[in-house]
Amino acid sequence: MKRRDLIKKLGLAGGTLALSGMTSTPVLASALKTLKKKRVLKIAHLTDVHIRPEYNAVNRFKNCLEKIKKDKVDLILNGGDTIYAADYDHIKKERVLELWACWKDSVKVVAGTPMHHVLGNHDMWWQGKGDEMYGKPGVLKMLDMPHNYYSFDRNGWHFIMLDSNHPTSPGMLDEIQWNWFVNDVEKNSQGKPILIMSHYPLLSCTGITDSKPDATGPFKISGSYNHLDIMKFIEVFNKNKNVKLCLSGHIHLLDKVWYNDVTYLCNGATSGFWWEPGDDGKSAYKQTVPGYTLLNLYNDGSFDHEYIKYEA
Ligand SMILES: [Fe+2]
């Protein structure tokens, strides 16, 4: 309902409201809440783009970005696995540069829209030690990221971008990042709602439906499917109720978990089945088709979201 219509319906036009005694009614309280609630950000969350020259992926991704452009978002969040794969042993520097060139060409479509990234497990090139493209610094340079983890404020919300790529136990933060994270949450605990993005899900149910033989951790699920340090996160969230939303990807399956008032959205992959013919004969991975997520964030800490399926 539009604000104007709501005011009319309540007979409150004129601005001076005879509110005494009325605010106790749940209907009016909820109506006033609606009046005060305002969308402050519209965001597109992309993840697992896995861009590559094969399968006409660049043009298909550009079509996706054209759609996002029409959505007129304020911000794009890129959840990692930006390029197809730089992490395998046989990958040469030429291939890494080719993949990043595909990315840079594609994102010209949304030039001017701010974009924030996290590191995926396939983004880092671990060959050629000492090379400017080596490891995490190479990716930070390609994506113009300030650090492998960082935070920022935008329109009354606080955003924390995490690096799930622990050097020995994928799917957890090392001690230095963990201490930074706790400090960052506590520093920003005064009212600002918090959105967290990681590549690996902090908490996800697709870890069960897409389980892998390397299952480890308290739930016998790979750390790349469910953060191994999730119990520590839950403790922090329990003390800091302004943490509202955790975004992730990696699994290529669409999943939503709500636990202790925190929503965990593991969103489907923009590349679907890595741009290849998928499980539906087109481009889906299992039952999840390629897509991106539109998020509306509101000034009262609430949000809504929709997974947009585009034809990839
Ligand atoms: Fe991944």
From TrEMBL:
InterPro entries: Calcineurin-like_PHP, Metallo-depent_PP-like, STPP_CPPED1, TAT_signal, TAT_signal_bac_arc
Domain of life of the organism encoding this protein: Bacteria
MF-aspect GO terms: hydrolase activity
Transmembrane portions of the chain: none
Domain Calcineurin-like phosphoesterase stretches: 41-252
Protein name: Tat (Twin-arginine translocation) pathway signal sequence
UniProt organism field: Pedobacter steynii
